[in-house]
Amino acid sequence: MTALLSVRDLSKHFRGLAAVSRVNFDVNSGEIFAIIGPNGAGKTTLFNMIAGAMPPNGGTITFAGEQIGGLRSDEIARRGIGRTFQVVKPFPALTVEDNVVIGALMRTNSLSDARTTASEILTKLDLIAKRDQIASSLTLPDRKRLEVARALATKPKLLLLDEVMAGLRPTETDRIVAILRDLNKTGLTILLIEHVMRAVTALASRILVLHHGAAIAQGTPEHVLRDPAVIESYLGAEAL
Amino acid sequence: MTNIWYHTNWRGKAICLLLLLAFVAAPIVADRYLLSVLILVFYFAYLGHAWNLLMGFAGQLSLGHALYLGLGAYTATALWTLFGVGPWIGVFIAIPVAAAAGMLVGWLGWRFAIEGVYFALLTIAFAEFTRIGFDHLGITGASAGLFLSVSSEGADKWWNLGGGPLLYYYISLILAVAATVLVAGLRQSSLGYRWLAVREDPEAAQAVGINIFRARMIAMLISSSMTAVGGVFYGFYYRNLFPSQVFDIGRSIELILAPIIGGLGTIFGPVVGAIILTPLGEGLTGLMQSLGINAPGAKLIFYGIMLMIIISLRPDGVWPWLARQMGLNGSRK
Amino acid sequence: MTAITLNVIVQGVLTGLVYGLMALGLSVIFGVMRVVNFAHGELTVVAMYAAFLLFEMLHLEPLIALLPIAAAFFGIGYLLQRTLISPFIGRAEHEQFILLVGLATVIVNGVLLIFGPDARPINLPYSFDSYAIGPLFIDKVRVLAAVAALAVAAALFLFFRYTRTGTAIRACADNLTGAAVVGLNVKQLYAVTFGLGLACVGAAGSLMATIADASPGLSQAYTLLAFTIVIIGGLGSMMGALVGGILIGVSEALAGFYIQPSMKSMFSFALLIIVLVLRPQGLMGRRL
Fold it and tell me: How many angstroms away from the CA of A98 is the closest CA of chain B?
């Protein structure tokens, strides 16, 4: 398998404080890769660098053979990386459908094409019945799925998901897990940050554990979750 | 546009056509005074559209649109008085001049991530800076003003905008209708959707591949160009220009009232706002005169109170509410 | 530097301190409530007329009239916030803007209706006195006005630093949700803040009346002046408002003397544009 996304020695510091230091990992085409770690471990910072929301201080990010470190987020989106936000950011005053149409307009200038794409994706994510609702009137689980739908509408090769399960009830989590599995089966590569371990173990083929900005373990779920360093620093304290 | 027209129900279509027909036919019955009021209605609807494009769609608050109005007015008027270049040619020079100023303001602001209140104050600063500059610019008459002479050759010809009120009536009507059609078309284009995304959440917009800087600059380009055309109309309609009037912040405020009162980010908001506000102001003047009150401030006091009441009761503007009342589906922005 | 230039600069600094006090009111209101008071200059002019009236009718010196005027303005501000502005807190900027533009329109035309368009000077017995210090000749009124402005500003600094209410208001500015969670009465504190902002306006207007003639036409210019100063100094920074005031005072004085009085505010706006582009948070503002 070839690496779709390849991160080398990636670092970011804020006023001397290292948020992410020399992190290395590869995400292969077609896999679901998870990044876990306690709060403040630097997951979202890492994510923001990949998505172009902030420039790295050092290291490289290679996506589909191209250096993308330091590009603007719209340039990165156009290269095929879709993302969601930890604190959801739908376009509040617009309808559910228009939210997704705007995503689809990245790949086409034709509105009718964009609407077709949007209704396909809304159907896939169980939002089609709410297409005419205003986004700000949705419940949190619906808003989270709307974020995924909008990102999917840009037809990404790699989907970055920032804690899409946080704050959801178990049944809702299972629903998203099933949706993500289906998407993955159609060839979509997924990189997710997640706290909900149930979802991580159910989805991820490989896991990277961040702690104080550094990678402390990496590998298959079985391997990583038995790692003493991981249990001590993270799992023992929070998730289990 | 086709889309919006298609989605409007028969009542909406009927009202639209009847209104248009009434405006086209109005000069048959209307006297000179009523025509002058209607000219102002169309003028403010037109400028409201221009400003609404930037604020209502792209989400950028400009309080300095007098800059583009003034530059448009001065460019075309000066070309005519100094070089004899008629307004139909002058307008094509006025547009790039104002657009260049708009690009400069936008570039300075958005490149350096100046947004919201800060951007609004930057736009005021540029308009005021230019106002004082023109106050001292000898070639356009400085603060003493620039006047269109009626005696120069060809000045009374319609192709030099030298006709009577009827000419200005139809020009302003065409401007307002054309702007409405243009804005409706843009709203339904992929560009329009990108503007809405940038307005709603710039960061999320960027994450779906939208170059927010470019989207804002395009909005500014169109908005300032449209405003410049309004400026050319202003210059030739009033036939005199003073920097302290045309570049004044009062001008900037006056032209944003109609879209805000009518409904920001809507297609008919600027039109409805202009239809409400202009006769209100004119009616007040008339009322004051008939009551024999000679108090120049009283009208504006009432105006100010009306503004406060409308924005308190209908912060989304009158049009979305009105559309619901009339059973039109045009309220969906 | 020649003695003349030095004189011009000192005059500018003194006037600038009064400007700074006016801008301080705007800065406090914005810093705490995120509301831009577009009626600031209009209210300043009202205070100038109040000082004029008290002088004409009761022969009260503006320096003394400052106290009742500032107190009255505190009350006006408190009531304005409680009634008119409170529902607009947290609403879109353009909505607040329309509300305050409406208010400004009412005020300026009310003044015009009552007093007419003519300028009203206050002729103090010492209006033309000046102190001679070395090569400098400094207007007495300006010195007194500047000292009074500094005193009011200092009182406000102390209030925010050392009183319970002042600390509570700062807490609201830093973290509104946190302030509400620990049980602070945010509505009450906002009303006090608006009151304090307008008390600055009342004091600044009284002082301004000694160095400029009150007229309705000044309103918009003062609103813009206050904006310019506050943006240059940093919106929400109290020290920044005074520094910005001095800077604009000096820039106006120099441009007025060496170039042309009518062009002086052009330089202020140029300064504003430069600051906005190079340092949008202002000279002393926190990072955006």
Answer: 8
Residue B147 pairs in a beta bridge with: B240
Interchain contact, B135 vs C262, CB within 8 Å: yes
- B/e letters for C99-134, b = 16+ CB within 10 Å, e = fewer, are bbbbbbbbbbbbbbeebeeeebebebeeeeeeeeee
Would you list the domain boundaries of chain A?
1-80+157-240, 89-155
DSSP string, B125-186: HHHHHHHHHHHT-GGGTGGG-EE--SSSTTTTSGGGT-S-HHHHHHHHHHHHHHHHHHHHHH
Residue of B190, B196, B211 lying closest to A109 (CB–CB): B190
Is the pLDDT reported for residue B331 higher than 60?
no
Tell the CATH topology of C8-278: ABC transporter involved in vitamin B12 uptake, BtuC (1.10.3470)
ipTM of the complex: 0.89
| Pairing mode of beta strands A17-28, A3-14 | antiparallel
- Give kind and range of the element (H or E) at residue A169: none
Nearest CB to B206: which of A74, A94, A151? A74
Structure tokens at B54: 């930037």
In whole angstroms, what is the distance from residue C84 CA to residue A89 CA? 32
Q: Which residue has the higher pLDDT, B251 or B117?
A: B251
The H or E element containing residue A34 is: strand A32-36
Amino acid at residue number A116: T
Cβ burial, residue C255 (10 Å; 0-12/13-18/19+): buried
- Hey, what are A15's tokens? 């006023």
Q: In chain B, which residues touch C (CB < 8 A)? A: 55, 61, 63, 108-109, 112-114, 116-118, 120-122, 124-126, 128-129, 132-133, 135-136, 143, 249-250, 253, 257, 260, 264, 295-298, 300-301, 303-308, 311-312, 315
B124/C224 Cβ within 8 A = yes
What is the count of residue pairs from A and B with beta carbons less than 8 Å apart? 77
Which 32-71 residues of chain C touch chain B by CB within 8 A? 36
Q: Is A226 on the interface with B (CB under 8 A)?
A: no
- Find the mean pLDDT for residues A115-128: 93
Among candidates B189, B209, B211 on the partner chain, residue whose Cβ is nearest the Cβ of A154: B209
- Residue A162's DSSP bridge partners are A193
Q: What tokens appear for C262 in the block?
A: 């009518």
Instruction: Write the CB contacts of A108 (distance below 8 Å, at least 6 apart in sequence).
Output: A114, A117, B190
Pick the CATH number of A1-80+157-240 from 3.30.830.10, 2.30.38.10, 3.40.50.300, 3.40.1550.20: 3.40.50.300
State the 10-residue block means of pLDDT for chain C, 288 residues long. Answer: 86 94 93 89 96 93 93 96 91 85 91 89 84 84 92 94 90 82 86 95 95 90 91 86 94 90 86 84 69
Residues 73-92 of C with CB under 8 A from B: 84, 87, 91-92
Contact of B66 with B252, CB cutoff 8 Å: yes
